[in-house]
Amino acid sequence: MPVAPGRGRKPKPVARKAAAGNPGKRALNKAEPNFGELRNIDAPVWMDGPARDLWELLAPQLCEQRILQMTDVQNLEVYCSAYGRFRLAENEVAMRGLLVTDDHGNLKKNPAATIINEAARQMATFGALLGLDPSSRQRLVGAKPAGDGNPFAALLGA
């Protein structure tokens, strides 16, 4: 049965395949674009509150692991913004409850509950693109830790 293009697993970046030892033994794409690995990036000036706090926590870690490139900044912005909305909406529900009274005195679902669901969906989507959930993290190969290589190589005379 034919499958629509774009379905299936998303391809790993070449650097991650190479870091993993090219387990598939297929030819690596030498012409893969590199959009500039980021070493450090400040939060956007418009971002504040919980969104900015999350940015300041995540951005240095993503840069340290060499995951964040210039083209990924927007994904991090959306993720942190969604988290900020999530937190604000959660506070609203905590203050007013899941049900609120409308102009006619009828009970209805607090609109903040919808914002919570939408923000959580965005966080799941954009967090996966950045490797921020357990299943996505399994597919990532981070930067190798600095060291002298294999500590047993000296024993073997290498």
SSE layout:
Blueprint: H1 14-19, H2 49-64, H3 73-96, E1 99-101, E2 107-109, H4 111-130, H5 134-139
Helix pairs in contact: 2-3, 3-4
Description:
With 158 residues, this protein is mostly helical. It has a domain at 49-139. 46% of the residues lie in helices and 4% in strands. The chain contains five helices and two strands. It has helices spanning 14-19, 49-64, 73-96, 111-130, 134-139, and strands at residues 99-101, 107-109. The chain has a two-stranded antiparallel ribbon with strand order 1-2. Helix 2 packs antiparallel against helix 3 (73-96) and helix 3 (73-96) packs antiparallel against helix 4. The longest helix has 24 residues, at 73-96. The radius of gyration is 22 Å and the shape is elongated. The mean pLDDT is 82.
